[in-house]
Automatic annotation (TrEMBL):
<dbReference type="InterPro" id="IPR029753">
    <property type="entry name" value="D-isomer_DH_CS"/>
</dbReference>
<dbReference type="InterPro" id="IPR050857">
    <property type="entry name" value="D-2-hydroxyacid_DH"/>
</dbReference>
<dbReference type="InterPro" id="IPR029752">
    <property type="entry name" value="D-isomer_DH_CS1"/>
</dbReference>
<keyword id="KW-0520">NAD</keyword>
<feature type="domain" description="D-isomer specific 2-hydroxyacid dehydrogenase catalytic">
    <location>
        <begin position="18"/>
        <end position="315"/>
    </location>
</feature>
<feature type="domain" description="D-isomer specific 2-hydroxyacid dehydrogenase NAD-binding">
    <location>
        <begin position="114"/>
        <end position="293"/>
    </location>
</feature>
<dbReference type="GO" id="GO:0006564">
    <property type="term" value="P:L-serine biosynthetic process"/>
</dbReference>
<dbReference type="Pfam" id="PF02826">
    <property type="entry name" value="2-Hacid_dh_C"/>
</dbReference>
<dbReference type="GO" id="GO:0004617">
    <property type="term" value="F:phosphoglycerate dehydrogenase activity"/>
</dbReference>
<keyword id="KW-0028">Amino-acid biosynthesis</keyword>
<protein>
    <submittedName>
        <fullName>Hydroxyacid dehydrogenase</fullName>
    </submittedName>
</protein>
<keyword id="KW-0560">Oxidoreductase</keyword>
<dbReference type="GO" id="GO:0047545">
    <property type="term" value="F:(S)-2-hydroxyglutarate dehydrogenase activity"/>
</dbReference>
<dbReference type="GO" id="GO:0051287">
    <property type="term" value="F:NAD binding"/>
</dbReference>
<dbReference type="InterPro" id="IPR006139">
    <property type="entry name" value="D-isomer_2_OHA_DH_cat_dom"/>
</dbReference>
<dbReference type="InterPro" id="IPR006140">
    <property type="entry name" value="D-isomer_DH_NAD-bd"/>
</dbReference>
<comment type="similarity">
    <text>Belongs to the D-isomer specific 2-hydroxyacid dehydrogenase family.</text>
</comment>
Length: 319
């Protein structure tokens, strides 16, 4: 393979050794990490950029990338990349989008959805903190069981389907809404409207992609219809939920609780001023994790190797 190809691996921490070996057969590999300023200074000489979610590959970065031909992102979502600028510059984007057969072997985010459900239902974070503060107070942390509850899944794609299958093991009644009416699966109740999910369900999980159409897909009208004892789980992307409406609903006790693995601010650098993070500091009915849904060694190493091999196939197709 052409050793003149210059590859920048932006986030090598915990990166798959097997994937790294594949990259090294393709060209000269430079490993990060890089600061934002270092990225802008150095990106111009590289042909290939390998990234996760730790950097915004925005207009400024892409305009500095004078030699860049390929971006490799081991993600399904691509809102960390300015796709319009990349297209204008004729940069090829290789990602996990559309790789359904491979992605069926990746379980991390669906499992994390249930971790968040358990964290809320069994009050695990606050119970742990109480013990760390020197208390042993069982009665303050009485929770809820999953058995017999109604779970509403918004988006019955790969992740929604996995969550539905997990739910069946807990004897949960599963309802699902998808904008594509042809999408269905055995053993669940398909609903004809989003409102039915809000009206019926005790637990609601979101599994839809970020897009212009899906921005604020879950907004105040939905929260106003939810049961007061219902909880919301979002492991998809932050901008699919109207965060102002969510915060208001939590403050006004229109819903019981929420757990988020994603925030809209994670892509604009304003996490330090996030009203949701500020609220969560002092309220137990909001749990936030730093987009770790897909962050398991198993899933990351599988996807990194898959993407390195996808880059390898891309180069072979260009030969």
């Amino acid at each position: 393979m052409n050793k003149a190809v210059r590859i920048l691996n932006l986030e090598p921490l915990h990166y798959s050794a097997n994937a790294q070996a594949v990259l090294e057969t393709l060209g000269d590999v430079t490993n990060g990490p890089l600061s934002r300023n270092e990225l802008l200074e150095k990106i111009g000489v590289f042909d290939v950029l390998v990234t996760r979610l730790g950097h915004q590959i925005d207009k400024e970065a892409l305009n500095a990338a004078n030699s860049l031909k390929v971006i490799v992102s081991a993600t399904t979502g691509l809102n960390h990349i300015d796709m319009e600028v990349a297209q204008d510059k004729k940069i090829t984007i290789l990602s996990l989008q559309g790789e359904r057969e491979f992605l069926d072997s990746i379980h991390a985010t669906a499992e994390h959805s249930f971790a968040l459900i358990f964290s809320l239902y069994r009050k695990i974070p606050s119970a742990h903190q109480s013990v760390m503060n020197g208390h042993w107070d069982r009665d303050s942390f009485i929770g809820n069981e999953l058995q017999g509850k109604k779970l509403g899944i918004i988006g019955l794609g790969r992740l929604g389907t996995k969550v539905a299958n997990f739910a069946k093991a807990f004897d949960i009644t599963v309802y699902a809404y998808d904008t594509n009416p042809a999408v269905s699966m055995d053993g669940i109740e398909n609903t004809s409207s989003l409102n039915e999910i809000a009206d019926l369900c005790d637990i609601i999980t979101i599994h839809i992609p970020s897009s212009k159409e899906n921005k604020n897909f879950i907004a105040s009208d939905f929260f106003n219809r939810m049961k007061r004892n219902a909880i919301l789980i979002n492991t998809s992307r932050g901008d699919v939920v109207d965060q102002v409406a969510l915060l208001s609903s939590l403050k006004d006790k229109k819903i019981a609780a929420a757990a988020l693995d994603v925030l809209e601010e994670e892509y604009n650098g304003n996490l330090g001023t996030s009203p949701l993070i500020e609220y969560a500091r002092n309220h137990e009915n909001l749990i936030i994790t730093p987009h770790i849904g897909g962050a398991t060694y198993e899933s990351m190493h599988k996807t990194e190797l898959f993407m390195a091999q996808k880059l390898q196939r891309f180069f072979l197709s260009q030969a």
